[in-house]
Every structure is written in structure tokens, then in C-alpha cells.
Amino acid sequence: MKKLFSIVGFLLIAFITFSLFYYFYQRHIYVITDDAFQMADVVSVSTQDASGKIVKLFKKEYESVSKEEPLFKVDDSLYRKDVEILKAKLESLKQKKKELSEKLSRLKEQLPADVKISKENLKALEKKLNQLKYQELMEKTNYETSTQKAESSLKAAEKGLEAAKVSFNHWKNQYNRYKRLYKKRIISKEQLEEVELAYKEALYKLESAKARLQAAKGDLENAKSLKNRIAIIRKQQEEVKNKIEALKEQVKISKANLKKINELSHSIRQLEEDIKSIESQIEKAKILLSHTLVKSPVEGFIAKKWKEEGDFISPGLPVYSIYNSKSFFVLAWIEEDKIKDIKVGNKVKVELEVCKKTFKGKVYSIGTSAGSIFSLIPRDTSQGEYTKVTQRIPVKIKVEKVPPVCIKPGTNVTVYIKKRQQ
């Protein structure tokens, strides 16, 4: 019996001796700490620039996700409507440009013909001047009729000009008011552009009314010139003067036609600029529409789901938090008096508590300051009260061949860092 107790005692002493030897040997060749944790880069996923209600969540918490895999969908009805409105406006502008271009083409073709007609009319007028001696009575009647008609047209043109001025002043005030509202971000750019379009249309009508008034005045002058023709019949010395007046009228008509061509060309150029602007807006609206379907920027696992279907979100508010398993590393906090034994590249044994397995790794980064320096309330030793506390330095460790099932950021780890060779 005594022999048995002796053997057991010997074995117990041997075991304790070996354990102590192993314990101190381990700490002789390794820097050991259990103040270590699994870490990984966490990405918060939100909409880039779209806002709205979440209509579909494609992933649940803790599910794996591939890069560019859809995560959630935001209600895109408003964005689709914006695209449709812009497309309709674009088609309207293109149609208007087509109409104005056709009108401009006709004017350019008609202008030489009008000049030719003006010359022919001048010749006819000279010929008719020789016949006025025999048509004096007829010309008097024609003079009275033409004068009444021209005066009636002039009154109608003046009324039309007044109405155009009222409309122009109204839309001018509206346009100025909408510009101020737009600067204050009270109205949208589309509303401002609609009022701007109405303002330009009113301006165009005003210019047209002025042109009609000028034409009516010209018609009245033409009618009154009939009396001059009668005077020419009576007084041959007035013949040349009437010819010059008639020629001037034709020049005015030619200039008026040239002015219309310039106005149409300017309107077409403005429409082209508007079309480019709308096309640019359509491209931006399509991009915004595409951003209502949010995809994963990285491959990894869903760490946290912050929103549910039906919730309203805006840019910057996270819907998912994803950690990238490929960025997995271990962060160990090493006591300051042991950091001298560690260098980048040291081999490491890592025990992951979550799966009770050991893996190999290497030190790839050593902190340059203690973690306490970043505390929210740092220690104040200015009053002379001081207790020495061993500080810890962060050390990052890259671990090899860790299966995804063992990667749980935030869980505990025990690390054995092989000391550097002296």
C-alpha cells in the first residue's frame, strides 16, 4: 500500500513538475494573451441617392451574400414617373424643333422668290403709273376702300398687341416669381422650366403682335399711297417719289423676312440646348432609378439588418451591415513590456473559442500607441495622483485557412505569438 502511495505521489509530483515546466516553457518562447478578438471589415449598406419605402428585402440576418447580389429594393414608382415625364417633354421639344426647322426651310426657299416678286411688282407699278390718267375715278374708289380696310386692320392689330402685352407681363411676373421660389428650393426645376416655356411663348406672341401691327401700318401706308398715285397722275413730278416710296416698302418687307429667319434660327438653337438639357436629365433620372435596387458592394455575411420592408429610408441610413470574411483578422492586445518580443512576420498560433480549433497565422501589423490614448475620457495625471497600469498595444494577426463557420467577429481568441529571435 505504501508502495502504491509512493508511486502515485511520484507521478503527481512529476505531472506538476512537467506542467510547471511546460507552462514556463510556453511563456519563454511565446507571448500569450487571451485579450484578443476576431475582427473583420464591416460595411454599412444604404441607398446612394434614392429615398423611399423599402418594398423588398432579399437577405436575412446571418445569410451569406455575394458581391453585386441584390440586397433590397426601394419603391421606384416616383422615379419611373420622372423618367416618363422627361421623355414626354423631350418628344415635345423634338417635335417643335422639327416644325420650326421645316418653317425655316420654307422661308429660306421663299425669300428669293419674294424678292423676285417685289421687283416684278415694281415694274408693274411703273407700268400702271402710265395708266392712272385713265383710271383716276377708279383709283379714288379704291383709295377709300383700301384706307377703311387698312384702318380696321390697324385697330385689330393694336388690340392684339395690347392683349399680347398683358399676357407677356403676366408670364414675365410669373417667371420672376418662380425663379425666386426655385432659388429657395420651394419648387422643382421642371416647374420653373414650364413657366419659362410659357414666358418665352408669350414673348414670341408679343413680337408677332408687334410685327402684325407694323404690317398693318404698312398696309395703311400702302392704301394712302393710292392717293399719291392719283396725285402722280395729276402731277407727273411726283412719279419718281412714289416709285422710291414703293421700293422702300419692298425693302422693309425683305428685312422683315430676314428678321423672321434670324428669330427662327435662334429659337431652333434654344430648342437644341433644351433638348440636350432634357437628355442629360433623363440619363441622371435613369441612374437614380437604377439606384433603387441596391446590391452588395462586397462578398461576405449579413451581420445586422437595420430596416424592415415598408420602412422609409434616405441616403446614409444603413439597411444592412455586412462583414467581409476575406478581411478577417485577429486583434490582440499585448502588454507593453512584452511588445519588444514581437515583430511583423512572427508566427502565431490562434485558438478560436467559437469553434475550439487552432490555426496558424502571422503578425502583419503592430500598433504605434497604446489603446488607452483613444479613450473617451483619458487619464488625468496632472494632479500628482498616479497609479501605474500596464498599457496594451494592438497587434493585428492574419490567420490562415479559417473556415467560414469559425469566423464570428467580436468573439474571443487566445493567441500564442512566437517571440522574435534576439
Automatic annotation (TrEMBL):
Compartments, as annotated in UniProt: Membrane
A GO CC annotation given for this chain: membrane
p-hydroxybenzoic acid efflux pump subunit AaeA-like beta-barrel domain segment(s)? 327-417
Gene3D superfamilies registered for this protein in UniProt = 2.40.30.170, Helix hairpin bin (1.10.287.470)
Question: What membrane topology is annotated for this entry?
Answer: Single-pass membrane protein
Q: Which residues form a coiled coil?
A: 83-135, 192-288
The entry's keywords: Coiled coil, Membrane, Transmembrane, Transmembrane helix
Q: What is this protein called?
A: Secretion protein HlyD family protein
Name its species: Desulfurobacterium thermolithotrophum (strain DSM 11699 / BSA)
